[in-house]
Amino acid sequence: MRSDTDDEGKHRKDVFAHLGVAVYKANVFELGLINAIYFAGFVEPRRKGAETREDYEIQAERFLEKLYDKTLGQLLNCFFQYYEVDAALKAQLIEAKIHRNYVAHGFVREKAELFPVKAGRDQLIEKLLQATELFDAADKAVDRLVFQRSGTSEEKLNDALGAHLKKIERSS
């Protein structure tokens, strides 16, 4: 038999689960930017100076390491240097950055007073769902630009990924 305290405990866990999903989706957005910059700044120009595959891989790793050290704001600025982005999309990506920073650095602290009561936790969950949708939309917008630039599509990428996963399954 479940009690009210069990339901309250589950509801509290739901808030943290939604927070975890929002942080995860924000990281997916950030990694999407890194991949887009890597494609436009390293893969597409076919980096010169690499005489062997090993040299190329070392250069690629260094390029990525520099990107991993950047803040989300720095990544956006770099992204805007490589991709033509209209004002609406630029605003969307900047809004995603602002919300990501808020979810990561201020959300729990600033919304703590809502946590003790169910109605407050419902508000927290709703705000986290909205942030998650924003991060998802921003990530998909970045993907569309990369697909457009590379001449591929999400369908082709998914087909290639599926084939790769089947190959891995067969070899294990």
Account of the protein in words:
The protein has 172 residues and is mostly helical. It has one domain. The protein is built from seven helices and no strands. The longest helix is centred in the first third of the chain and has 40 residues, at 4-43.
Q: For the residues shown, what is the average pLDDT?
A: 91
How many structural domains can be distinguished in the coordinates?
A: 1
Beta strand % = under 5%
Low-pLDDT stretches? none
Structural class of the secondary structure composition? mainly alpha
Helix amount: over 70%
Could you state the order of secondary-structure elements as H and E? Answer: HHHHHHH
Radius of gyration over all CA atoms, rounded: 20 Å
What is the makeup of the main sheet? none
- Overall body shape: globular
Distance between the termini: 44 Å
Number of strands: 0
What are its keywords?
mainly alpha; 7 helices; about 80% helix; about 0% strand; globular
Short description:
This protein has one domain. The protein is built from seven helices and no strands. It has helices spanning 4-43, 53-68, 72-82, 87-105, 107-110, 118-150, 154-171.
